[in-house]
Amino acid sequence: MSPRTNKPHEIVERALALSRADGCVVIADERSTANLRWAGNALTTNGVTRGRTLTVVATVDGREGTASGVVSRSAVTADELEPLVRAAEAAARGAGPAEDAQPLVEGVPASPDFTDAPAETSSAVFTDFAPALGESFARARAGGRELYGFANHELVTSYLGTSTGLRLRHDQPTGTLELNAKSPDRTRSAWAGRSTRDFKDVDPAALDAELAVRLGWAERRIDLPAGRYETLLPPTAVADLLIYQLWSAAARDAAEGRTVFSKPGGGTRVGDRLTELPLTLRSDPNEAGLESAPFVLAHSSGDDASVFDNGLPLKATEWVREGELKRLTSTRHSAALTGLPVAPGIGNLILDGGDDTSLEEMVAATERGLLLTCLWYIREVDPATLLLTGLTRDGVYLVENGEVTGEVNNFRFNESPVGLLGRATEAGRTEKTLPREWSDWFTRAAMPALRVPDFNMSSVSQGV
């Protein structure tokens, strides 16, 4: 049995049959990727890769409770399959009772395509995109700018089998495009990114035209000091901030008084109003264009995930409804501890409820303020307030009397996404966006631009 000659569902069945534990969960992830990279208006590399990762979760019942052991390995051969299962069982027997122990999920109807071959991507995903990119290189060269960037498409087929009878499958395509335009002397830089399922909705020419405008804005340079500025945050920046907020919204952490969602004196802030704007922050595995796994796929346990919840069906969830906090992420275990509903994390995030104004219209309505391109190097400063710090990058522009009048220096910022929601005075049109900072982990987002009257640029940064 080589990792590419045996069918994934057969490997799942074989691993379950080898198990001697009281419970067993097996996840086979079949991954294929195709990519293009370019620099200086010329394609540099392209390639296709394929691989498999097998994760085995063993559960062992004892007098003090149920223990779990998890082992993941790549390219498992026939001779390595049984040792992998035994390693997971040994890890479970060597561990103490698992705090998050719950009965393994059962009763979920099998996926009708569970025994089908995995979906795979290939260079064919770029059939239309690559020629259009080449035409953009020619236009950029003629316009005196250089294009750098990459396009990546990944297709992961996950097969989930359990000793309680679950047989589930999910195909997840993920495409990202990042494009930088630079002046030949490298003093000016502009960035644009897109998230896509299949590259059919990505237009390199439109992106290049957008970047050409921004490089033109940057021909005039204006130095500004640190301070609080009215700021327009584009959808990509809003996504990066709110994804971190979602990652920090574990119900148990909030109930134990450790996060911005903890209520002073005890309990959580569920039910509190976070913003006066009628904004709804939600996730939905069936959201058109942002589809994600409709059941829990947990390769490890943590504050907001549990291997015991594998296979638990996911449904549309509102984290914030019309400005009010409605849900915190919770496993079955943490929900029982906090008394809150079970609400596992979902692989997309949408903020809507704005006024359908475009970012360009928001610029036109600005007397004086800053327009950001994106945020970078975001790190947490204080979990109690969810204060984050990070940098602006690839273009901060000054808006005066409804027009962009030049590029200003970059800044370090210090802000809390919860605080920003509370102070935002306008939300525009929700659109699909690529979160630049978190694009390696979370790509499926749709956000509006936000107007914040006093965004805190805490210091000047010398980055481009």
TrEMBL record:
Pfam families, sorted: PmbA_TldD_3rd (PF19289)
| Residue stretches making up the Metalloprotease TldD/E C-terminal domain | 227-458
The annotated region (Disordered) lies at 92-116
What superkingdom does the record give? Bacteria
> Care to name a GO molecular-function term for this sequence?
metallopeptidase activity
* Low complexity bias spans: 92-101
List membrane-spanning regions: none
Tell me the InterPro entries matching this sequence. Metalloprtase-TldD/E_C, TldD/PmbA_N, TldD/PmbA_sf
Q: Please give a single GO biological process term from the UniProt record.
A: proteolysis
Gene3D superfamilies for the chain: PmbA/TldD superfamily
Q: Which PANTHER family match?
A: CONSERVED PROTEIN, TLDD PROTEIN
Stated name of the protein: Peptidase
Organism encoding this protein: Streptomyces dioscori
